[in-house]
Design a protein that fits this description.
The protein has 337 residues and is α/β, with parallel strands linked by helices. It is built from 16 helices and five strands.
């Protein structure tokens, strides 16, 4: 669709007015839902790809997302008015999830389809969400999360919502291919995207949750405490691995303050993803993260093999953690060359 390239170019140029013109003209031709999902949504997917291969900066990524968000506002203001004829849906991102545009696109599509929608935006703390549910009594809560490291929070939020008697639909990249983690967590429904979520809500009644349950009921392996202990000791792990790297990698002695900060942040991400993999007991989540990180590093001219000494040092620190040892085992790292 020509509008995709036109919106991308306008957003990349930082031209909000041109971007708005593009989406409004496309909406007049193709309809608001098509533009929301197949134009704005497509451009947003491209943002992530372009950043990963180092063709745009973080600042450009944020600027394009902001322009896309304002384009959605323009579409929302001009969409056909329609009375709500279906149920009430609360749409929210889990706490710590800043990627709000996917949830907003869902909210807009549901409104177009005739649902009454309460859109709560990015990173909604669970206690406040629960208070809101008690006050508004929606038919369904739709929770969005794009970042895998938010999975423990998403799981806890989901079970808290279900304890109020409200069924929970989840969606977003965090929940894995085909919603594998949504099923593992006991979600009442999972949808791959906004269009399929709207279709599902129109075509079937999402069954209310059964008896209240806790995260450990869904994930009995949490009883070994590896996830809890790694999470609690994350800062100490990062400091210990960083000191070990200084001894193993002499070049770190000449690092700038910014390089040191970036190294510490990278180590924190590694520990956080390892903890998340321990939470869901899925080696592939950690391997996929390492592979993706290696590709990002390679795109920036940094050999992915720089991760190896950090992983070795982390393995030494976690020598008494069998599941962590399994995930950190060298043959399974899958680092790109």
């Amino acid at each position: 669709m020509k509008a995709v390239d036109a919106l991308w170019e306008a957003a990349l140029d930082g031209d909000e007015h041109r971007a708005t013109d593009v989406v409004l003209e496309a909406a007049a031709e193709h309809g608001h839902e098509v533009v929301l999902l197949d134009v704005v949504g497509a451009v947003q997917h491209r943002v992530g790809r372009e950043w990963a291969v180092n063709r745009i900066s973080v600042a450009q990524e944020h600027a394009i997302t902001a322009i896309n968000d304002r384009a959605v506002t323009a579409l929302s203001i001009t969409r056909p008015r329609r009375e709500a004829i279906h149920g009430r849906v609360t749409v929210a991102c889990v706490d710590g999830e800043w990627h709000a545009l996917p949830a907003r696109l869902l909210a807009e599509v549901l409104s177009l389809r005739g649902f009454a929608v309460d859109y709560l935006g990015a990173q909604v703390p669970a206690p406040h969400l629960i208070t809101y549910l008690h006050r508004t009594s929606p038919d369904v809560v739709a929770l969005s999360s794009s970042i895998a490291t938010r999975l423990p929070v998403a799981h806890a939020t989901m079970t808290a919502c279900q304890a109020t008697g409200v069924p929970v639909m989840v969606g977003g990249a965090a929940f894995g291919v085909d919603g594998v983690y949504a099923r593992r967590f006991g979600a009442n429904a999972w949808a791959a995207d906004a269009r399929s979520a709207a279709d599902m809500l129109l075509s079937q009644t999402i069954q209310p949750p059964s008896a209240p349950h806790q995260p450990v009921d869904d994930l009995p392996h949490l009883a070994d405490q590896e996830y809890t202990l790694v999470t609690r000791s994350a800062r100490d792990l990062v400091r210990s691995v960083y000191r070990g790297l200084e001894e193993r990698v002499p070049a770190m002695g000449s690092y700038t303050d910014q390089q040191r900060q970036h190294t510490a942040e990278d180590l924190a991400h590694i520990v956080e993803y390892l903890a998340t993999a321990l939470y869901v007991d899925d080696d592939s989540l950690f391997r996929d993260f390492l592979s993706w990180t290696g590709e990002v590093l390679n795109a920036r001219g940094v050999p992915a093999q720089v991760l190896e000494p950090a992983l070795d040092l982390l393995s030494v620190q976690l020598r008494d953690f069998p599941r962590a040892q399994r995930m950190l085992a060298a043959p399974d790292r899958s680092l790109p060359v």
